[in-house]
Design brief:
Rossmann fold; five-stranded parallel beta sheet; globular; magnesium ion binding
Length: 375
């Protein structure tokens, strides 16, 4: 790999290497000191479950039950580590691949699939879970996240030292860093000292465009241009993911302003189910990263510590199989919602323009009924 370019793995924060061995880091080890074997087992469980769900969703798309699916295969450690570092008072703005963080925020995973079946924009209560609905427009949510973070600060929910202090975690991929919205969000966050953590999951490809075509330097280096502290870490290391995210969130919650963290990882599958990665990357690269599988390295460590038994693995397999069954039945049982429901959640409060448009649409639908046909 290029020792200085955007795909360099030199200088990454790493606390669990690919051989399943714990490492020390002068700056970040203390942020993972509370991760005992029980906590690591919980992370392994979540990573295993979300991967099984991911595979089930891919199968459903291949069967024609979903219009599209966005796999997170290979990025479980980056997501689960960050998800476990969150507090209830924090709020997450995901893009469209954060299935692991959704799990840690209590979202029922099958509900994610409603948007990919074309039934709803989102099917969970964002306020209840502290997890916003998925955003399909690349990078657009970064501005929304910054605005929400500024509101938290104005509402006195930052820097008080109380457990109620919170921060925003905004997640996006390497491709989004090339979007104007993300750069505007970084500017606004920096000059207003917003309590936000920008988490870049650098999986090395913006669809088929490699990171090397987007940047000449590691993406985290962009932080210094905005006056934002930044850290790069091994995104396939769940311990480092937890430690760095915890540090960044504590920094933001305490009123010290925004942080940019870059999880250097790899998309082991396709960008979406409409993509064929064999067209733009080599089998040798895929094999290289398969040896750095985030779940396998944690499993190796836990087995070496005698913490992960065959019974626990079997139990997780049974749970994953049940989730798959429940997911299939849910997806195939959903009915098409009334077309007018698109007006229901545009604004939190009634809005005159939306109500006028709803009334027009009702008349439009009725006009087809009057002619004896369906809209």
């Amino acid at each position: 790999m290029d020792a200085h370019g955007p795909l360099s793995d030199q200088g990454l924060v790493q606390l669990l290497n690919r051989h399943g061995e714990r490492l020390e880091d002068e700056r970040f080890s203390r942020y993972a000191a509370d991760l005992d074997l029980e906590a690591l087992l919980a992370m392994w469980h979540d990573m295993t479950v979300v991967r099984a769900f991911d595979k089930e969703a891919t199968s459903l798309q291949r069967q024609g039950e979903l219009g599209l699916w966005v796999p997170s295969l290979g990025q479980e450690a980056a997501q689960i580590g960050a998800g476990h570092a969150l507090r209830e008072s924090d709020f997450v703005f995901p893009s469209y691949r954060e299935h692991g963080i959704a799990l840690t925020r209590g979202v029922d995973l099958p509900e994610i699939l409603r948007i990919f079946r074309g039934l709803q924009h989102g099917a969970w209560d964002a306020a209840e879970h502290g997890f916003h609905l998925y955003t399909l427009v690349i990078g657009a949510h970064s501005l929304h996240a910054t605005g929400y973070a500024l509101a938290m600060d104005r509402d006195g929910l930052v820097g008080t030292g109380a457990d109620s202090d919170g921060a925003v975690l905004c997640c996006f991929g390497d491709g989004a860093t090339s979007q104007g919205d993300v750069n505007e969000a970084l500017t606004f966050a920096a000059v207003n000292n917003a309590p936000i953590v920008f988490m870049v999951q650098n999986n090395q490809f913006a669809i088929s465009e490699p990171t090397t075509r987007q940047s000449r330097v590691p993406l985290a280096q962009r932080g210094s241009g905005f006056g934002i502290p930044a850290v790069r870490y091994d995104g396939n290391d769940v311990v480092a993911s937890y430690a760095v995210a915890r540090w960044a969130l504590e920094h933001a919650r305490s009123g010290q302003g925004p942080v940019l963290i870059e999880a250097f990882t790899y998309r082991m599958g396709a960008h979406t189910t409409s993509d064929d990665p064999s067209k733009y990357r080599s089998q040798a690269d895929e094999s290289y990263w398969a040896e750095r599988d985030p779940i396998a390295r944690l499993e190796t460590y836990l087995r070496a510590q005698g913490a992960l038994t065959d019974d626990a693995v079997d139990a997780a397999g049974v749970e994953a199989k049940e989730l798959g069954r429940r997911t299939r039945e849910a997806v195939k049982g959903w009915e098409r919602p009334p077309a007018a429901s698109i007006f229901d959640h545009v604004y939190a409060e009634p809005h005159a323009t939306v109500e006028a448009e709803r009334a027009w649409f009702a008349r439009y639908e009725a006009s087809f009924a009057d002619q004896g046909v369906h809209a």
